[in-house]
Amino acid sequence: MADEETSAAERRARFEALAPELVESLRRFLARRTDTATADDVLAETLLVCWRRLDEVPDAALPWAYGVARLCLANAQRGARRQERLAARVAVVDPPAQSVPGPGADDGDPRLDEALAGLTGAEAELVRLWAWEQLTPTEIAAVLDVTPNAVSIRLHRARARLRDGLRKIDGLAGHEGSREGRTP
Amino acid sequence: MTDDELQQRLQAHDPAASLPPADPTWVARLLEDAMSADQSTESPGTRGDSLAETRESGTRHRSPLTWLVAAAAAVLIGGVGVFGLLNNDRESGQVPSAGPGPGASVSGAPTVTELAAGAPTQGRCMVPSAEVLSNAQVAFSGTVEAVGADVVSLTPDRFYAGEVTDVVEVRTEPAMMQALVGVVDFQPGQRYLVAATGGEVMVCGFSGAFAPRLESLYVAAFPG
């Protein structure tokens, strides 16, 4: 019993030492991917998973926690989508999964949004993890649970596709300078 | 466009760039929620113990009926207790010694506040708040003098609430001592903040080692 109480206290101490720095990064991670209310819910869920699986948290805790948050977010979005479908009773086939533009879509670079939207969901996520979370391929591999090698190759490809997309969009906008203002 | 330029362009468009830092209180609450919400699942020292529920093994999935029965039992026990006290009064004319009552002081000898440790709580811990803490009848900071088999004695240096006494003793059954020590981690020579309601030490983060955060909670709960 004494051991259990001690280990409970140790667990708490470990979580309390670990979690605050995760929270800040996770908030940003989620703010980049969903609305505020969902972000708060998913953050709470993610922390709960971290607490339950504290013994499995590796030394490099953050990529691992991002991986958890990613799955929790996917669950939340699946649930939300299901509800939307039910509510709307939409009888059409779901459109294929597209990368969702970030919630900050209205502040600035619509061409970048457009280029990001041209990527597949997986490609866009790689780019986000690289540019916004600023993770290395090894860390991204931990988030996505794939090999670092695969991340390197796919990230390289995703960046090339994004660059191409941007070049096309920027080029188009350049040529049609007079119509630039119409872009929302 | 190089990778760096691409990264910069993306970063300039980071939706989280304008996110203000989280309120520390909110974060603390979030962490506490995570830790306490989990009491239902499994004891951290998962050894397949099918013992009675502890704080860790929790009560989340208990049916409302269980709570109803528990409430009924509490009322019954309370009733019997009151009946016993009244009876005792009438027969002996003595004031019953309220064992774990707050502020049971003895004149002459050093005054003592006796508190009971109580069993580890069955319910969920709530986030320690000054509002809840202000309900404590006894609250003090003090240094642990000794940890005995069934008593922890403290020398208080400040009373936030309750009658000021020279010594505070927290009594518990020897079997529960480990639990109490585990929950509050009483160590001889260390300073603690302790609060009690109904003569029982409040655990769940209300009592603990002296720390600025906990102290500010006490100051907020007992202004003046």
Automatic annotation (TrEMBL), chain A:
One Pfam family of this protein, by short name? Answer: Sigma70_r4_2
What keywords does the record list, in alphabetical order? Sigma factor, Transcription, Transcription regulation
The GO terms this record gives for MF are: DNA binding; sigma factor activity
Q: List each copy of the RNA polymerase sigma factor 70 region 4 type domain by range.
A: 111-162
GO terms for biological process, alphabetical: DNA-templated transcription initiation
What the entry lists under InterPro entries is as follows: RNA_pol_sigma-70-like, RNA_pol_sigma-70_dom, RNA_pol_sigma70_r4_t2, RNA_pol_sigma_r2, RNA_pol_sigma_r3/r4-like, WH-like_DNA-bd_sf
Q: Which Gene3D superfamilies match?
A: 1.10.1740.10, Winged helix-like DNA-binding domain superfamily/Winged helix DNA-binding domain
Homology family: Belongs to the sigma-70 factor family. ECF subfamily.
Protein name as it appears in the record: RNA polymerase sigma-70 factor, ECF subfamily
Automatic annotation (TrEMBL), chain B:
Alphabetically sorted, this entry's keywords are: Membrane, Transmembrane, Transmembrane helix
Organism from which the protein derives: Nocardioides psychrotolerans
Q: What are the leading ranks of the lineage? A: Bacteria, Bacillati, Actinomycetota, Actinomycetes, Propionibacteriales
Q: Where is this region: Disordered?
A: 1-24, 36-61
What's the protein here called? Uncharacterized protein
Q: Where is the composition biased (Basic and acidic residues)?
A: 50-59
The membrane-spanning stretches of this chain are 65-86
